[in-house]
Amino acid sequence: MIENLASNMATSPAFSVADIASSVGVGLRAPHYQAILAQQPKLGFLEVHSENFFGDGGQPLKYLHAFRELYALSLHGVGLSIGSVDAINLNHLQKLKRLADAIEPALISEHLCWVGVDGRFVNDLLPLPYTAESLRHVISHVTRVQDFLGRRISIENVSSYLEFVDSDIPEWAFIQEVADRAGCGILLDVNNIYVNAMNHDFDAKTYVDAIKPGSVTEIHLAGFQDTGEILIDTHGTRVSNEVWALYAYTLARLGPVPSLIEWDSDLPPLDVLLDEAKHADVIMQQAAANLLSSPPRHPMQRRTHAA
């Protein structure tokens, strides 16, 4: 059991979000386990897909506890299906809580999407219609998840290639409203913003400008494929120059936020991920320096007049 494994291993104190502020991490994948343990590169945190560690013991959890001794961890889910009309899967939620209680992650996140209905699942993150009805539904599901876990989660904007004709709320307004009313955070995927902006013909900066700085708990960066007709979020290439530029714009507005390099397909050597992380860190540190050098904003003083 996870609880037994956790109690039998010496663990360092839990990391918090504050511990990884202004830092960059990478997605942890099995082919890089040995290299990371051997090199222990300077990274702010590691992120894993929660569902890969739902089992009772075994090598995956042993590795996860070993990494937990070295780095802050982020649990990133892909199967909770928060946007589905189905009720939240209690078995899934119980396994997530068990894992979170054992690992004490700095961050927990899920996607603003649905992945199945009526017990049938697809291997994709499907977008929602952005309507008042779906907004109420998502808020109730996020609240249910947070209440059960006893932890705040963050929701991530997903890439999409089609839009619902019934959508009458901009995506950026929808995700911000969920965060405001459910009290959750936003995992802002800058690559997905750029992909959707190109696919659906809107200004990516409009999306960023609509997000409240205090809502964002994490940023994701990844690569995409350009088919000539649409952009596809593949997580299989380096971050594009356009997305790096949007990332810099995002940090200039939000301030430094924990940021992650995602790479899930055509996985390269670890050094490539570390190079991408180093690039993100340079942009992060420049944003922090610009913030410090900016003149402080003082509230306007009320003028008084003699009677």
Treating each run of at least 4 consecutive H or I residues as one helix, how many helices? 10
Q: Under the CATH scheme, which architecture would be assigned?
A: Alpha-Beta Barrel
Strand content: 15-25%
Seen as an oligomer or otherwise, the chain set is: single chain
Q: Let me know the average pLDDT.
A: 90
CATH class: Alpha Beta
Describe it for me?
With 307 residues, the chain is of the alpha/beta class. 40% of the residues lie in helices and 17% in strands. It has a single domain (2-291), classed as TIM Barrel (Alpha-Beta Barrel), CATH 3.20.20.150. The protein is built from ten helices and twelve strands. It is globular and about 50 Å long.
The gist of it:
The protein is an alpha/beta fold.
SSE order and pairing:
Blueprint (H helix, E strand, L loop, with lengths): L1 H6 L16 E4 L5 H7 L5 E5 L9 H10 L3 E5 L13 H14 L3 E5 L2 E4 L2 E7 L5 H18 L4 E3 L14 H12 L2 E5 H11 L3 H6 L6 E6 L2 E3 L4 E3 L7 H14 L4 E3 L8 H24 L14
Keywords:
single chain, 307 residues, alpha/beta, TIM Barrel, eight-stranded parallel beta barrel, two-stranded antiparallel sheet, disordered N terminus, disordered C terminus
